[in-house]
């Protein structure tokens, strides 16, 4: 059975004190939820990862990083390596978020390298992809997503998918309040699962968790999560409020 996953992307929000408060509040808000088949992940900024890890010890909360550099070390001022993340106890990293693609020029080629580095360091990736509004309007969304997946993932081996979670995030739905309809999400998730199955085998396709991200809120989470191929969510804005994040987790 595929794992259900609700992952929060905190982006560049929350200082040290706010991080402490939010981790504690989320933990309190989810204590009585049945989470046997559900993973709960938060991703604070680099600087607060260690604090979040310490506070979430012995809780159901896992802590992920929002990014990392593809090189293992060297002259890359301001960057953070896989080894650095691993050395403090991080196991999961977001790769390819649309904001990284757009504002930091992360191309499919760079993302393919990042995935190699993630896997070489025994980390797990939440690999994000999705079409822009123009592509959706031109009905090119499947083509675009297919290309993003081919370019970044097709050099991998089937066994690598033990450490890969996929996250479909239509760019037009991120932080805009506009959500893909449950049917649009399901259409894309089936398409993605088929691509993965064809390339890496039916078992890999069947077992890979595919999250939906884009303005998921307590009010729409249940409907989106009810779709067969939607295995959870990547949550931005609503992951910054413990009650909303807990309500989304409850909806899964
Ligand atoms: C995100 O940034 O990954 C995201 C889905 O944001 P939001 O939920 O705010 O749309």
- List SSEs in N-to-C order: EHEHEHEHHEHHEHHEHEH
Please report which band the strand proportion falls in: under 5%, 5-15%, 15-25%, 25-35%, 35-45% or over 45%: 15-25%
Distance between the termini: 14 Å
Strand order across the largest sheet = 1-2-3-4-5-6-7-8
- Number of E-state strands: 8
- Runs in which pLDDT lies below 50 for 5 or more consecutive residues are none
- Alpha plus pi helix count: 11
Structural Rg: 17 Å
Class by alpha and beta content: alpha/beta
Characterize the biggest β-sheet: 8 strands, parallel, barrel
What is the share of helical residues? 40-55%
Bound molecules: phosphoenolpyruvate
The shape is: globular
Mean pLDDT: 97
Can you walk through the features of this model?
With about 250 residues, this protein is of the alpha/beta class. It is about 45% helix and about 15% strand. It is built from eleven helices and eight strands. Strands 1-2-3-4-5-6-7-8 form an eight-stranded parallel β-barrel, surrounded by seven helices. Helix 1 runs parallel beside helix 2 (about 50-55) and helix 10 packs parallel to helix 11. The two termini are about 15 Å apart. The model has no long low-confidence stretch (mean pLDDT about 95). The chain binds phosphoenolpyruvate (PEP).
């Amino acid at each position: 059975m595929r794992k259900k996953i609700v992952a929060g992307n905190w982006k560049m929000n929350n200082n040290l004190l706010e991080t402490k408060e939010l981790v504690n509040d989320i933990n309190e808000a989810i204590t009585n939820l049945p989470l046997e088949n559900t993973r709960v992940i938060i991703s604070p900024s680099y600087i607060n990862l260690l604090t979040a890890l310490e506070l979430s010890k012995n809780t159901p909360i896992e802590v992920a990083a929002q990014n990392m550099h593809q090189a293992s070390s060297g002259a890359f001022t301001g960057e953070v390596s896989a080894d650095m993340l691993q050395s403090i106890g991080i196991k999961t990293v977001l790769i390819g978020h649309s904001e990284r693609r757009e504002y930091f020029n992360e191309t499919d080629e760079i993302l393919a390298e990042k995935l190699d580095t993630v896997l070489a360091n025994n980390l797990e990736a939440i690999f994000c992809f999705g079409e822009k509004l123009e592509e959706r309007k031109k009905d090119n969304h499947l083509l675009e997503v297919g290309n993003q997946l081919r370019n970044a993932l097709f050099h991998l081996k089937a066994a690598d998918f033990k450490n890969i979670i996929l996250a479909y995030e239509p760019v037009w739905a991120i932080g805009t309040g506009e959500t893909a309809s449950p049917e649009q999400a399901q259409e894309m998730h089936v398409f993605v699962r088929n691509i993965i199955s064809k390339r890496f085998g039916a078992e890999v396709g069947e077992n890979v968790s595919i999250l939906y991200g884009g303005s998921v809120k307590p009010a729409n989470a249940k409907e989106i999560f009810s779709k067969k191929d939607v295995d959870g969510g990547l949550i931005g804005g609503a992951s910054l409020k413990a009650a909303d994040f807990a309500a989304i987790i409850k909806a899964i």
